[in-house]
Amino acid sequence: MTHKRTGGCQCGRVRYEVELASDDAYWCHCRMCQKATGGIAAAFVEVKADQILWLSEPDWYDSSPIARRPFCSHCGTPLGFAFRDGGGGFDLTVGSFDDPSGFRPVAHAGAEGIHEAWLDTRDLPRHYSASTDSVAKRWKAAGLEVPK
User: Is the pTM of this model over 0.85?
Assistant: First the structure.
């Protein structure tokens, strides 16, 4: 059984729909994904390319001799990863889904690039945007609520 999920970029210019058979996701820690996202890893959901319906087309960046990545050239949101030869499926970034909360990580890829100190952070203090004055005051001054 599949279920439809939707997503897109931060500004809303690029949108997609995809049929998913599971909520499995994975972390990629390779240096290419670290550089492409600006993070210590990229969280992806692997899908078949023909399962994605682009409601509005992304821009594409040839990020290496073997891969290309969809993104929004207006807001910069990284949307995924695909091998240039079309093999191996297609990966959408977990954070680009409208509701990423249902996904669960099941594997680590590019493990040679793992930064171990970042894997288990459950004991670190947690600061919430709505109760962080420097953030909440700015949203209020803009006449808006803190995004959830």
Answer: yes
Task: Specify the amino acid at residue 2.
Answer: T
Q: Domain count of the chain? A: 1
Q: Let me know: does 20 contact 62? Beta carbons within 8 Å.
A: no
Give domain status of residue 43, yes or no: yes
In a domain, 124, yes or no: no
The residue assigned the tokens 């005051």 is 137
Distance in angstroms (rounded) separating the CA atoms of residues 91 and 62: 15
Q: What is the CATH number of the domain that holds 49?
A: 2.170.150.70
Rounded Cα–Cα distance for residues 82 and 73 (Å): 17
What is d(CA 49, CA 92) in angstroms, rounded to the nearest whole number?
Answer: 10
In a domain, 130, yes or no: no
The Cα 85–Cα 127 span in angstroms is: 43
SS3 of 53, please? Answer: strand
Question: Hey, is 68 helix, strand or coil?
Answer: strand
pLDDT, one tens digit per residue, over 6-55 is 999 999 999 999 999 999 999 999 999 999 999 999 999 999 888 999 99
In-domain check, residue 129: no
